[in-house]
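Q: Hi! First time doing this. I have a protein sequence and I read that you can turn it into a structure. Is that right? Here it is:
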Amino acid sequence: MDMIESVKRPVYIVGHKNPDTDSICSAIAYAYLKNTCEEGEYIPARAGQINQETQYVLNAFHVEAPIYLHDVMTDARDIDMNEVAGVTADVSLKKAWHMMRDRGDVTLPVVNEGKLEGIITIGDIANAYMDVYDNCILSTAKTSYKNILETLDAQMVVGNEDGYFDSGEVVIATANPDVLEDYIHQGDMVILGNRYETQLCAIEMGAACVVVSMGAKVSKTIQHFAKEHNCIVISTPYDSFTVARLINQSMPIGFFMKKEKLTTFKITDKTEDIRAIMKKKRYHDFPVLDENNNYVGMISRRTLLNLRRKQLILVDHNEASQTVDGIEFADILEIIDHHRIGTLETISPVYFRNQPLGCTATIIYQMYQEKGVEIPKNIAGIMMAAIISDTLMFHSPTVTEIDKLAAKNLSDICGIEIEEFAVDMFGAGSNLSDKDASEIFNQDYKVFTVNNIKFGVGQINSMNSIELEEIKEKIVPYVKEQMAALPVDMCFFMLTNIVYEKTELLCFGARADELAIEAFRLSKSTKKIELKDLVSRKKQLIPAFVSVLQQW
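A: Yes, that's right. Below is the predicted 3D structure, encoded as structure tokens:
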């Protein structure tokens, strides 16, 4: 059963936060491959906003952006909900009891045109039956004659079943007619037997309804007399004792339901929040509402045990700090990456493919080849773009001959020339004149952890030195202002010139300059850190930092 359900559930293929072109395009390309080769639904996703370079690529090849995952925490939609059908407030206590007993439910939602009006439980019905009420309770509850007929298995002899008993008391007529005159009042409901005189007396005294027990025949004279006095006549097969015992069960549940301060959940509520609230409440079931406040079902503590965690395939990362929020609440099925082995832990073994290549898309390309799947032109285009982007058009030290060959083959498939496309793509990505400092900083920013030291590294690639200086003027004051709020010990920002293959490294935070100077063996008096022949965060900057931090 679990295997069948896992096939039907969607699997999200998602890259790292602040996704780059490789992260986005690899997710799309791998989802296409999985959907072509395997059963199930594989959905490309993203954990952040798409940058300008990536958007240019998607537009160029007419590919839709992946869906946005704010987090992968489970919510009410991931719970096996009890789809308990709601009932209206006029349903009788007896009918509600039988519905719950037959279905094994202990709580019944009361709805009106989809909206939740209240809930009633087995306990509420038991209390209604056991509590002692005065003789007016039936009319106070405005009990419908339909409910009374249904509860007593009765027939309407005289009158309209669409009416309500809404005034007077319930009286059992066991005394002689001359005595009954003292306690039957206008508007009462009188339970009596087959005695003609008693029936006549009750009608004469202004009873709103007479209930004839034991299935006794009601004479034509009494029927005629009742019509003249607007008195309803009901005939039931039960004896007077049984009628008296059952009659209160005809009252509508709306009179007894709980309708104030209901504890409800929205389908978007996170299960961790739901679990915390449930611990504080003693209720068995809790109603769930959709975005429009329509009732959709019930959940309980027991249904939380069958929680369906979101299923993920991670591409282009394996660092816990770079994953989509709430990763600890999800099931990771696969990891496809080309970075160093990071800090991510999984609950169970996963398919982990990690190769020392310049781009994750190159690995995905290899998987297409291995499975013999033909690559569509648009998918080939975005994979080519990902390789160009991650290898900085083959200028990065991370690039391999495998990457170059893959890019060439993909270029042949999509019919786009690599160098010309690269110029346009990098130009679109570095055109940040209309972006504020926050958008530029977060465009390609990743957090790493080494020996419990957390540091963040952002990067902007450009072919234009003047543009890099303009970006620097925005970034420096922004990071200085935000540094105290960033959840890292140190922060770095790479201004990488693709043409000259060099990077100016901006350093922020205690010991950040010290780390950079020691990692690249610079003079301690260095003020402006310019690193020639350094363009790769993954293969050049991070390894140098790691080797130093492991000694600190």
